[in-house]
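Q: Here's a chain of 236 amino acids. Please give me its 3D structure as tokens.
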Amino acid sequence: MSNTSPLRRQLLAAAGGAAALLASRASRAQAARADAPTPACVLTPAQTEGPYFVDERLQRSDIRVDPADGSTRPGALLVLTLRVASVEGRGCVPLAGAMVDIWHCDARGVYSDANDMTFSTRDSKFLRGYQVTDAEGRVRFATIYPGAYPGRAVHIHFKIRANARNAPRDFTSQLYFDDALTDRVHARAPYAGPGERRTRNGRDGLYLQGGPALQLALIETAEGYAATYDVGVRGA
């Protein structure tokens, strides 16, 4: 009998499917650009941290659970894999040992451990956490498809903290979603629905500053969705 947990099986299956899809897309793109020399990897656009980063120091893969009360935030499962590389010249190398935080709102547009005009969630810690990149620069999270926070396109924040030649190095940005897919996800409970409350990508000022390069390519799995995104940060 296997000792692998259901969540572990979900993570492995979703990551495998995402990797296969990305490899296929990369092969097609590479063939289309065969005559044009391009760097092996590119720098990811940086974006603002936003008002709700809290350095909770929660090292965990499944960020759906609130350790304050043991409750699980409802929503469509999203298995997110980030592959972090240090870009140096025309090449890049995996960035191992870096701390990668992600945080985002729940299905109803609420952030944990924050005070807002419409909610107060101090001392809760749902949908926050960090992982440390492995030898291949990878981290993996189980979370939910984010809801709609008023005035913003649907997004996930992430922060990478590493050491470059004994000096701290931070990189912060955001990840976005296809509007049509979000329409379908948000039409189901427990999401608030597509309505006027949600800002679409093209009307979000931050999305217009690099958002297309930060948009996730999701695949649908038996349990929900999965995505893999390559992050390139400037080398030392």
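Q: Can you summarize the key feature?
A: Residues 14-40 have pLDDT under 50 and may be disordered.
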